[in-house]
Amino acid sequence: MNSTPAALLAIAGGAALLVLAGIGALAVYDAVADDDMMGGMWDMMDDMSGMMDDGMMGGRGQGNETTGTASGQGEVRIIDFDYKPSVLEVTPGTVIKWTNEDGAPHTATAEDDVFDTGRLDKGESSDITFEMPGTFEYICTFHTYMQGRIVVS
Question: 133: pLDDT confidence band, cut at 50, 70 and 90?
Fold first, then answer.
């Protein structure tokens, strides 16, 4: 009698059990951890799926110009790999708050390095005050197709 097929079945069964044990361990960890690791992974997968739908690093953040105005305090939300509004007109002395609502990290970094929010993970914000008149173009250093503009006048 040939025992090779039985040995192969035993090895395949053992490998399947190891995979299932790993998935179970991740599920248990996620259930007891406070950091919602699995939720964050699903958010990032959803964001990546959207990037693929728009043509890898392509359509997002381009041609979707939105405008806004503010005086004293303004806000730019980062949603779906886009700045909203993408163009914000403000008066001198206005404090602008950038808030990342995506699962992926983003920045708002001036093309001439005049300002930088630094890395903003999901739910994080950064405030920058604009004192001097001028036009300030900025990008996300992680996703350079994301573009915005602050106009101080």
Answer: very high
**pTM of the shown model:** 0.62
What is 67-152's CATH number? 2.60.40.420
Q: Can you tell me the mean pLDDT for 24-32?
A: 64
Sequence ranges of the domains in the chain: 4-53, 67-152
Tell me which amino acid residue 153 is: S
Scored b (16 or more CB within 10 A) or e, 68-107 reads: eebeeebbbebeebbbbbbbbbbeeebebebbbebbbbbb
Task: Report the C-alpha gap between 133 and 106 in whole angstroms.
Answer: 26
